[in-house]
Amino acid sequence: MTSTGEEHRAAGYGPWWWARWRSAVLDGSLALVSALECAAEGIPFARDAGVPVAVGVVFGLLAGSVLLIRRRWPIAVVLVAIAITPAQMGFLMGIVGLYTLASCELPRRIIAALAGMSLFGTMIVTFVRVRQDMARGDLTLGDWFVPFAAVTTSLGLTAPPLLLGLYVGARRRLMESLRERADSLERELQLLAERAEERAEWARNEERTRIAREMHDVVAHRVSLMVVHAAALQAVARKDPEKAVKNAALVGDMGRQALTELREMLGVLRSGEERPPVPTPRQASSSGAPGAPAASPVSAVPLVAVGAAAAAAASRAVEGEGPSLSELEELVGQSAAAGMVVNLSVEGEARSYAAEVEQTAFRVVQEALTNVHKHAAGAKTHVRLAHRVSEIAMQVENEPPPEPASASAAGLPSGGNGLLGMRERVTALGGVFVSGPTDAGGFRVSAVIPAVS
């Protein structure tokens, strides 16, 4: 693993202004060497200046120890080095000070000004010293050697530490920039991971809600009709055997339809399994006696990944499987066969719509009729379907039930999710859903869905 900028900054634990102990030890060692150098150079300086040697040594120790604060105040170190240049002291301090100054994050004009002062100071002192040596006869070279020695010495003591400091400073800033970018990328990746987890959780919740809504729509209507027919069968079993046989056949047919739709729903949740074709309710009823149980039971299967289920459901919708508006008359006929007085009226020219639109419209009418069976058994119901230019509208309205206690007598429980499921289906397609009691004491469910061909 690479260390980020925050970890790098958090690792500072040195004394005073040092980030690390090793930095403090390095600066202390350099300051000690510089102090010894200046103390040694203070001896000839004291003799030339006519002061006691001890004064020159102490002065050199104090001046050389200034290198200890080079990281904190690099400008002060360079100024002290320039100030003691005429005494030919502090060569190490001048070199290290220029390097530290150039590597710091200071304005370039300040670095250039101090470097120029050090360059010219060293050049003048060297020029004067070499000329004095030639005047005393210590050097017998030509006059050209004086400026050459001055320029060469000043450049040699100024340019290398300055260039090296600029390079190290630029590299340090680059590394800090890379660390900051790494920190930023790490935070962004963490944020993306959190958002991906939230989206995955949201997708799982949406998938569970969709599956629960589909299961509710599939089971509630069929089972409600089966319960109504079973109650009628119990009432007329001894009085009217023919009607009892007819009701038993209807119960069996509706049970097979519910079983078939449950098989289709569970099949959506399978990932890549080849399944044999499931017979339609009519095929199942024609192949056996009325009321016979289904040939093969439905086994429970675990839920697969959300993406696979969603993709399978989408492909199922595109292929046109599932209920459609063409089955609306059959749906109303089933409710009428259960004893409900229901009228169906269609306005406008019938045409085909997108599979999800037709399925949603069918499920809205189906769930509304199921609610009538549950809460207003025996009430007269009106189902209206309107084909408009850019939308399809449906309305299911029931009159007050003749006997308010009939709903509870039927023994049909209510989970309270029917209206919520209808609203979710309609709003998911950009439609409008309204439901509520009527002034006459009944109940009305209305929905308008944009038409998508």
- Taking the alpha carbons of the first and last residues, their distance comes to 55 Å
In terms of structural class, how would the helical and strand content be classed?
alpha+beta
* Strand and helix order: HHHHHHHHHHHEHEEHHEE
Q: How many beta-strand segments?
A: 5
**What average pLDDT do the residues reach?**
78
Number of helices: 14
Question: How would the global form be characterised?
Answer: rod-shaped
Report strand order across the widest sheet: 1-2-3-5-4
Domain unit count: 3
Largest sheet: 5 strands, mixed
Low-confidence parts, pLDDT < 50 over ≥5 residues?
A: 1-11, 271-320, 405-410
Rg to the nearest angstrom?
47 Å
Classify the beta-strand content into a percent band. Answer: 5-15%
